[in-house]
Amino acid sequence: MTFAELGLSEQMLHALTDAGYKHPTPIQAQAVPLALKGRDLMGLAMTGTGKTAAFTIPIIERLIGGPRRTRALILTPTRELCVQVEESFTKYGRHSGLQVISVYGGVGYDPQVKALRGGVDVVVATPGRLIDHLEKQNVAFDEIEVLVLDEADRMLDMGFAPQINKIVAQLDKYRQTLLFSATMPPEVEALARKYLRKPVVVQVGRRSAAANTVTHYVYPCPKEKKTVLLAKLIKEHNMDTVLVFTRTKHGADRVVKHLEKEGIESDAMHADKTQGQRTKALADFKKGKTKVLVATDIAQRGLDISHITHVVNYDVPQQAEDYIHRIGRTGRAAKTGDAFTLMSADEIGMVRTIERMMGKPIPRVSVQGFDFGT
């Protein structure tokens, strides 16, 4: 199937061609036609499936040529995701003349006020900062036609339910609502029942499926030797763009220090970094200035960097579902990638839980001098 078969406008087809896309991903092929018809949608899809475009494309199509006022609102859990959704609107809406703004905390307030009061077509926001603007009457949502709740499970995990309720209470109840979530716990189902009208459920992959474009390996290794093994693997495998996950902020900084000593350009991304530092770290990584980005799970969902070749779990994630989200950073949009997990003796049980969830064993790779016996 091609994008042309989805009945999209010339402007949109030009934008997709400019971006180098011809064929929709499965979630796009299912969601776009339904969203274009104005249906409420519940999209169950992992990261890396192209779900952002599955809602940005139909929203742009709906807004093209319409009145100039704020008609679409997208709520996201994090600043990084906010910026990525804004970039998606800019990319696919480049021939539409639509204006979009991202609104999140940790950056200057006044430029956001100016843009909101000046009038924009689309607002992409994190719930906390948006509530501030609503309370100060910097923005009015009485003309909203489409609401998107992106990564709904994560927004609820982060305690945003009261803010979401407060925001949605200000919207027209006859709007179109699109909800996207990587998992569907009872809280998300309750949220969907509350805000969606006769939604169509679009599901891509099993509820806990790992992207099948990713090859998985487990490297048994004593805890104290992990940093040395990591540097060795990056060099020997000639790894190009590597995302490393650690359990703690301190751990992330420690890994960066060691890799830099080994001559491997690296940077860390976690909650103790300022928004400016996080944006720069992400930009340098995307441009290839740094080869390795070491992150805590704050960066684990919604990071859209299409060319990641390797994801390394320096620490095995505590929740099996987090493994799926972490490795969802590579093998995105049908590209291939490798997921390496460094497993110390006390993490064997956690790896077995992940294997049970995936329904298959992950091959063990033994490196001389690093195995448990050494």
Explain what this protein looks like in three dimensions.
By secondary structure, this protein is an alpha/beta fold. It has two domains: 3-203, Rossmann fold, CATH 3.40.50; 214-358, Rossmann fold (3-Layer(aba) Sandwich). It contains 14 helices and 13 strands. The strands form two sheets. It has a seven-stranded parallel β-sheet with strand order 3-4-2-5-6-1-7, sandwiched between helices. A six-stranded parallel β-sheet has the order 8-13-12-9-11-10, sandwiched between helices. β12 (310-313), α13 and β13 (337-343) form a beta-alpha-beta unit. α6 packs across α8. The longest helix is centred in the N-terminal third of the chain and has 14 residues, at 79-92. The protein is globular, with a radius of gyration of 21 Å. The mean pLDDT is 86.
